[in-house]
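Hi all, posting the design record for the shared folder.

TITLE: backbone redesign
STEP: 1 of 1
STRUCTURE INPUT:
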């Protein structure tokens, strides 16, 4: 098959799902089912389980597998299920990737190894090992603010030579660097925005979509924004991007996923519980977030009509 005929893992919006916990800290599968069904009813284009927003680093290996299998059973192939498999240990990521394939994932999202400060050569060897672990498409996650290091566009060029490495999620705020990467994307490879506030910027430059935190709360708004862009309605797309700008700001006022968990609780979707070492926001810290959310809730309702 020619590379140009390879479809992207998804096109549009993929929601980076929260992992809901009960008051004792266990996974609330009733809430997770409701969250997934809510996303499907909003016609999102893909779902990400066990990512940063899902507090993957606080989940056991068995919980990761259980989450994937549970989600796959609900989704039943309606949209791609992308499983986070990142860690700073290559052998561990390989195990997580094999687990994801066995548990029902359609693709994996794997973060640049953090803390270790690997060389670019080390990153290439790491991601090749991950890509060799299964036949699943691999989306590399480049998020320098969390990992403490940057995957360069020259490194990405070499990584994209592997047939299973299909895309990169860019949470790099420097658009000049993003453009350097986009300019070198081979046919059949994709870039996704990892920042809600940069969705239209990445799409306009040739991206395929966004892996969104905000769509946990307002999936229809984010979906409509992407759809507006793809059909050429830039005025509507820009208006919706503007409408969500303040929300994006508030969702990253403190570390993700603490604010989105508070907001999901406020909306009655799940409890405001995170696992240590994360702690919840105090109510006083949430006032601005909730105020912005009230305005977006009206837009979400409009998008449902």
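Okay, here is what came back for every position:
SEQUENCE:
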């Amino acid at each position: 098959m020619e590379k140009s005929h390879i479809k992207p893992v998804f096109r549009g919006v993929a929601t980076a799902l929260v992992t809901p916990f009960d008051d004792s800290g266990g996974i609330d599968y009733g809430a997770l089912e409701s969250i997934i069904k809510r996303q499907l009813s909003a016609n999102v284009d893909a779902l990400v389980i066990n990512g940063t927003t899902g507090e993957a680093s606080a989940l056991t290996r068995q919980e990761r597998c259980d989450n994937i299998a549970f989600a796959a059973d609900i989704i039943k192939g309606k949209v791609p299920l992308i499983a986070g498999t990142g860690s700073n240990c290559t052998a561990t990521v390989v195990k997580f990737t094999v687990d994801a394939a066995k548990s029902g994932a359609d693709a994996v999202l794997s973060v640049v190894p953090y803390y270790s400060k690997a060389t670019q050569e080390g990153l290439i060897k790491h991601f090749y090992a991950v890509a060799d672990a299964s036949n699943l498409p691999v989306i590399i996650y480049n998020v320098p603010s969390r990992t403490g290091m940057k995957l360069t566009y020259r490194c990405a060029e070499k990584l994209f030579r592997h047939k299973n490495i299909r895309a990169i999620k860019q949470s790099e705020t420097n658009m000049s660097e993003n453009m350097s990467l986009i300019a070198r994307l081979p046919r059949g490879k994709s870039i996704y925005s990892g920042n809600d506030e940069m969705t239209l910027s990445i799409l306009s430059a040739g991206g395929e979509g966004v892996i969104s935190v905000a769509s946990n709360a307002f999936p229809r708004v984010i979906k409509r924004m992407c759809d507006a862009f793809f059909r050429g309605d830039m005025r509507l797309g820009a208006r919706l991007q503007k409408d969500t700008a303040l929300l994006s700001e508030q969702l990253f006022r403190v570390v993700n996923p603490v604010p989105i968990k508070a907001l999901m609780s406020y909306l009655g979707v799940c409890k405001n519980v995170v696992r240590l070492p994360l702690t919840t926001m105090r109510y006083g810290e949430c006032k601005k977030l909730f105020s912005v959310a009230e305005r977006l809730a009206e837009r979400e309702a409009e998008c449902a009509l």
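COMMENT: The chain has one domain: 3-303.
Let me know if anyone wants the other runs.
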